[in-house]
Write a structure and sequence with these properties.
Chains A, B: Keywords: Glutamine amidotransferase, Transferase. The structure is a homodimer. Chain A is an alpha+beta fold. Chain A contains five helices and 15 strands.
Chain lengths: 259, 259
């Protein structure tokens, strides 16, 4: 059913620790072996690493694990295929341009009765429900906001309302970012944690790796990690509720269903 | 002033040999140290590797050099910045969706008096003349062909006419692909070679590497490589003329200014 991983931080931060845990779920400690991808933003630009091969065996995933690329906004996905075959064009995350910025999206879940959704000029390339849903979101946003809106928080609240419509068609857990803001939407499985000073040790569930974040950070760092299931077994993760959305900026949660 | 590298092949082929030569020109045997990128197509999907760091020192370029990714259509670019600073969003190649396919573009050259070019809904993200020119091409194509045209060769001839307009604004050497077709357009510097049976040895100019293609290929393989300057010193490369375009499909040249 796939797993998601995201990060929002106020300083460029690498995600090697969390990605090391996630990677194992792509074929070793988990069944999500039908491809993986990760997108790192640096300013307005981004780098994508993708492979239709299982992450636990991928040479490219190994590079990402060992080569610390620092970023303030990251989305990653490991796939267990349902809609759409195993192929690069069906591998998340998906990236499209809107309002002169690159938008990146990843989905965990499965939709039914979705093929009626209009995507306008944002054509899917692959065959997944996920990519089509993303194209639909972009089309809806472009119709409502022909140019980039002033009030981005209000715009993301509108996206949450659109996600409610998608959730009515099945399971729709989502991460969405423009490189600055990172939005989460939960159907059934999504967790988050914000790490800030005083930092402490963290222990991965899927690999024998422990890290002392106090040695890796400064007292001003704020780093939020989002994952389908908690990646560590010694920290307190928040579990999101069905229909809950959260909006993060520079690591801080700035809006939510309840905020 | 940048260098381009492209490949069109009738069987998935790796570009490690040519890329090894090109890499050196990004900071060692050449001055193109302001970032590099490469796009490999696999079916309708693609993989992008980019770095704003010089290719001759890039860890990611080293992976690409050593990890043979097989593809029928590849575009690569090493940059010497003029318009737009050194940043990931200004690093070629650029990829956008049109007609449900990913289109990839790279440019070598510099334009002036181009900011009036309309790009419609295809907004540039970075600050280069190159990306803006690409967005203008996409907008022009979408206006003329609201859906994917039947006659792709005629469409590419139309693109060549659009490139003539860009060439009037400065230096415009270009590679453009949708993963199937690969088009080249020359202002001043672009060369190509089609390798087919009987294959022979090839010797790089920029690195002490020689390969015997006969050991790497089957008799049916057809592989065209395009480069700003020839990469080998023992083969016969064709030099393109100003205003010349060529269209390749599965390694064969199927259309040209003269064909």
């Amino acid at each position: 059913m796939c797993e998601l991983l995201g990060m929002s931080a106020n300083v460029p931060t690498d995600i090697c620790f969390s990605f090391t845990g996630l990677m194992q779920r792509g074929g070793r400690t988990g069944p999500h072996k039908d491809g993986w991808g990760i997108v790192f933003y640096e300013g307005k630009g981004l780098r994508t690493f993708k492979d239709p091969q299982p992450s636990s065996q991928s040479r490219i995933a190994k590079l990402v694990q060992e080569y610390p690329i620092k970023s303030c906004s990251v989305i990653s996905h490991i796939r267990q295929a349902n809609r759409g075959g195993i192929a690069l064009e069906n591998t998340h995350p998906f990236t499209r341009e809107l309002w002169g910025r690159y938008w990146t999206f990843a989905h965990n879940g499965q939709l039914s009765g979705y093929t009626h959704l209009e995507t306008g000029r944002h054509n899917p390339v692959g065959e997944t429900d996920s990519e089509l849903a993303f194209c639909w979101l972009l089309d809806e946003l472009e119709r409502k906001y022909p140019t980039k809106p002033e009030d981005m928080t209000a715009m993301f609240r509108h996206v949450a309302g659109l996600c409610d419509q998608l959730r009515a068609l099945g399971v729709f857990n989502m991460l969405l970012t423009d490189g600055e803001y990172l939005m989460t939407y939960c159907s059934n499985n999504l967790h988050w944690i914000t790490r800030r000073a005083p930092f402490g040790p963290a222990r991965l569930i899927d690999e024998e790796v422990e890290i002392d974040f106090q040695k890796e950070t400064t007292p001003n760092d704020i780093v939020t990690v989002i994952a389908t299931q908690p990646l560590t077994n010694n920290e307190q993760w928040h579990k999101m509720q069905p229909g809950e959305f959260n909006l993060f900026l520079l690591g801080e949660r700035i809006a939510s269903t309840d905020l």
